[in-house]
Amino acid sequence: MRVSGEGLLLGVALDALFGDPKRWHPVAGFGKVASAAEKWVYGDSRWRGVVYAGVLVGGAGAVGVALERVAGRSVLVTAGCTWVVLGGTSLGREGLVMARLLEGGELEGARGRLSHLCARDPRGLDEAGLVRAVVESVAENTSDAAVAPLVWGAVAGIPGLLVYRAVNTLDAMVGYRSPRYERFGWAAARLDDALNWVPARATGALVALFSGRDSWRVLWRDGKKHPSPNAGRCEAAFAGALGVRLGGVNEYGGRVERRPEMGDGRAPEARDIRRAVGLSAAVTFAAAAIVWSLR
């Protein structure tokens, strides 16, 4: 299955110019459908979670196949689908909002805004904890929001774009460990791990290519320490590239995780958020250029 490389590149340009659509965002619509479906299907069972994820992801794939059959390799249709599944620009904008708040000493504002980037409990976080949360989120989501959609768009066309975003959205909704979703969200979380395996490592490699030997060294040494099979590759590469130390204690709704540290540098500071955002954008454009050149 082939997709228009020009369409993917134009979609990246649209995301860079406009960010996420302000109204009638298809991903938000999918999230509403998924929330409604959860009310009907939910049970403390892996099998119910398999059915839930299978039906929703299969539906997204069917829409993608239908669009591709109608539009073929249309540059505009591919661009539109690419635009709505990407989130790199919105990720960068949220990172810069957090940078401005933290640089201005507005800790309460930063705590209130953190949920736009991650599910970490912000209530007990000081400035250092907030900065680390933002840098880690920018690193991980460079793959989730930008590189992975491009990889799957290149591999499987419009269906690949829509299936990837459906899986990633479900993982964000039900894929985290909690008493409610430990079993029900298992299928969504494992699908997300599988679809992000290659993109996360590609993201880490691109970060290291831009940044040099320290990033390669930390990526190779520390990337596997993270409890996620994918997030650690991105975070370790960013830690080495920025010369900072990531990892540590995180709290998610009363659940505490103690993660190994990655990197040999100092603790990240507010100014490092801007550096992380810039690096994320560079990696996104590099990934887009590589995908375009391969089509």
TrEMBL record:
- Which InterPro entries does the UniProt entry name for this protein? Cobalamin_biosynth_CobD/CbiB
Question: What is the membrane topology listed in the Swiss-Prot or TrEMBL record?
Answer: Multi-pass membrane protein
Superkingdom per UniProt: Bacteria
**Which regions span the lipid bilayer?**
49-67, 74-92, 146-167, 276-294
Q: Does the keyword Heme apply?
A: no
Q: Which UniProt keywords apply?
A: Cell membrane, Cobalamin biosynthesis, Membrane, Transmembrane, Transmembrane helix
Which Pfam family, giving just one, matches this sequence?
CobD_Cbib
Give the pathway annotation: Cofactor biosynthesis; adenosylcobalamin biosynthesis
Q: Note whether Manganese occurs among the keywords.
A: no
- Localization, UniProt: Cell membrane
Regarding protein family, the annotation reads:
Belongs to the CobD/CbiB family.
Q: What does this protein do?
A: Converts cobyric acid to cobinamide by the addition of aminopropanol on the F carboxylic group.
What is the protein's name according to its record? Cobalamin biosynthesis protein CobD
Q: What's the source species for this entry? A: Actinomadura meridiana
Please name the taxonomic classification of the source. Answer: Bacteria, Bacillati, Actinomycetota, Actinomycetes, Streptosporangiales
Gene name, Swiss-Prot/TrEMBL = cobD
